[in-house]
Design goal:
The structure is a single chain. By secondary structure, the chain is α/β, with parallel strands linked by helices. It has a domain at 55-192 and 405-413: Nucleotidyltransferase, domain 5 (2-Layer Sandwich), CATH 3.30.420.40. The protein has 16 helices and 15 strands. It has helices at residues 6-15, 22-26, 28-43, 111-122, 165-175, 188-200, 242-249, 258-263, 265-281, 288-296, 301-308, 314-318, 321-353, 368-372, 374-392, 405-413; strands at 53-58, 65-74, 78-87, 91-101, 109-110, 129-134, 137-140, 146-150, 157-158, 182-186, 206-210, 214-220, 226-229, 361-366, 396-400. The longest helix is centred in the last third of the chain and has 33 residues, at 321-353. The protein is globular, with a radius of gyration of 22 Å. The N and C termini lie far apart (61 Å).
Length: 416
């Protein structure tokens, strides 16, 4: 090891395929335009790298008031429940918030156990309407219920594909002596979209979630302005690098959700750590990082973010000064790649939305990784604004949708 050498590190990242795709790096606006055409093809049911799922919601106007509605947010880390009601104009009221770890987060479980645990969470509440924010892949049915297509984010549940979420919940409620309730299922990106619309008094042009996972939504003109979940975490148009593949091999859903694995908090830390291990093998770092991983395991995205911020951390203590510089450079480059990919995917949604000329573009942003990782947030915002100005000649404002998912879920439950 010869100390910090930026040219050698960049060459290492490029040769291992961990630099951003040349198309996105050299012409992000052109990349967003091409992806927008793929979204159009998907809306027309042509071959596409997307698996667009209509929400059943047309978001031209939000309801004025909500009756008592139980909002259930089944996320990649936690499941949150809260009763919501009231006027959107005067502010929604929330009560009886409860938070649980999402079933299947700590190891493989059966679909029966998954829905049994969700039923136990819901049973104490009294309501006639439930909105379920299902942060995974689900086909929305004509009655607003949702059929499970696939799970992700390392929530490992066997046998749930094809099950209808509301029906499974009502089976559990019936077994506990409860009356059936109407269940509406909505994706988290759509819930953030609606929640931000209520918070800011204007429907956004698009939204993205960048937390444990990654996704986008927008209103698709070819589907009558219906709000669509793009399932952009499953987009396959970005090339995988050597260490993306290494991180993928350690995941529960190998070979799937590939864009999500290059962008989101659940997987980004593993890709950074695998690249750093590769740097050790190439002599760009000492064996100290490999020793740290052997003892403590791969550091997650939040631990790496803390390291980059200068906070005290076991990772910082384990590395000599020159290694810290190399590791920080690799981490920042992969965070930049994540921001660039999130920006071109989000911008493609805005382009498809065909925003009204003369108005500022509004994008709702939610997700713990985006909110808590300063460099990622700054770069994502900058790339989106640059693409918006280049392609549409319009300024863009990123609206914080933090804390809006539960409210957006309750709103969506009253729009189908």
């Amino acid at each position: 090891m010869n100390g910090f050498d930026e040219i050698r590190i960049k060459s290492f990242l490029k040769e291992s395929g961990m630099s951003p795709a040349p198309e996105a790096e050299e012409d992000p606006a052109g990349c967003a335009l091409r992806i927008a055409e793929e979204l159009k093809d998907c809306a027309l049911k042509k071959n596409s790298s997307f698996a667009m799922l209509p929400s059943g919601i047309r978001a031209e106007a939000l309801p004025d008031r909500l009756p008592p509605t139980l909002a259930v947010d089944i996320g990649g880390t936690n499941t949150r429940l809260v009763l919501i009601e009231g006027s959107l104009k005067d502010g929604l009221s929330e009560r009886d918030l409860k938070v649980f770890e999402t079933p299947g987060r700590r190891g493989t479980i059966s679909a029966e156990r998954f829905f049994d645990e969700i039923g136990d969470m819901i049973a104490p509440y009294e309501c006639e309407r439930i909105g379920v924010c299902f942060s995974f892949v689900a086909e929305i049915l004509p009655d607003g219920d949702g059929r499970v297509v696939a799970l992700s984010k390392e929530v490992d549940v066997k046998g749930c594909e094809g099950l209808v979420i509301g029906r499974e919940i009502n089976k559990r409620l019936a077994s506990r002596g409860k009356a059936p309730v109407r269940v509406t299922v909505i994706n988290d990106s759509c819930a953030a979209f609606l929640g931000a619309g209520a918070r800011y008094g204007r429907i956004p042009d698009a939204s993205f979630i960048l937390g444990t996972g990654y996704n986008n939504c927008y209103c698709e003109p070819l589907l009558g302005g219906m709000l669509v979940n793009t399932e952009s975490g499953r987009y396959t148009g970005f090339p995988l690098g050597d260490y993306d593949r290494a991180a993928d091999r350690g995941s529960a859903y190998q070979g799937d959700f590939l864009a999500e694995k290059m962008i989101s908090g659940e997987y980004l830390g593993a890709a950074i750590a695998c690249a750093a291990l590769g740097a050790c093998e190439k002599g760009l770092m000492s064996p100290a990082f490999a020793g740290f991983v052997s003892e403590s395991g791969l550091p997650g995205t939040s631990a790496i973010s803390a390291f980059l911020s200068g906070a005290e951390s076991p990772l910082r203590d384990a590395l000599p000064e020159e290694d810290r510089k190399v590791f920080a450079f690799i981490a920042r480059e992969l965070l930049r790649r994540s921001a660039l990919y999130a920006a071109v995917l989000t911008s493609a949604c805005v382009i498809r939305r065909q925003p009204e000329p003369g108005k500022k573009i509004l994008i709702a942003a939610e997700g713990s990784t985006y909110m808590k990782t300063g460099l990622l947030r700054t770069l994502t915002d900058r790339y989106i604004d640059e693409i918006s100005n280049t392609v549409l000649g319009m300024p863009c404002e990123i609206l914080s949708a933090e804390g809006t998912v539960l409210g957006g879920t309750a709103i969506g439950a009253n729009m189908i």
